[in-house]
Amino acid sequence: MFYKNVEPTEARVHTTQFRIIGRLHLPPSRGTSEFLNADDRPHLAMTHCSMYASGIEFPPKRQDFRYETDFAAVPKEQVAWLAGGPSARPDPSLPHEERQVYLVYPSYVLTGRLMLRPNQRTSDFLMDAMGRRPFQALYDARVMRPEEGVSLFRLPTLERLESVVVNLRSAGGIFDLARESDEPGFVLEDD
Length: 191
Known about the structure:
This protein is mainly beta.
């Protein structure tokens, strides 16, 4: 599908290999996660891009700069997470439950709140999401760096973001917090 009206918005895209800072071009009627989950395009179009080595520091260090381009087509399956673009909040008239989750990657951890149906098991949500809608909004997100001897749930926060869109398929593991405790309730690891 070709979108006649798109709105450029500043964004930071973290892929499995790079960090890209530039402009996304999204249709105004769709949230970022909805757009990424659509099957009509295998890539994410960006303009005015600066590409940096993989990492989480923002702003990136000068020595991490790699490329600059007016246009980049980023394969969606390479997107780990992104900050920017419109984030659709759940419809307040529909019941939902917030679930604190931790997504682990080789050199950092993302945490925030996912919106699930009431009483839905995290494993059921993930089975459906990874099959059909791997891009999900994560609200009140924090970026954290692992430290030796520090619990996953007590890592220092490097950055706070109102929301990010994560590709659940790219995480090395996904943890949620059991409602009754501060301990993880579910773990999913890549094969």
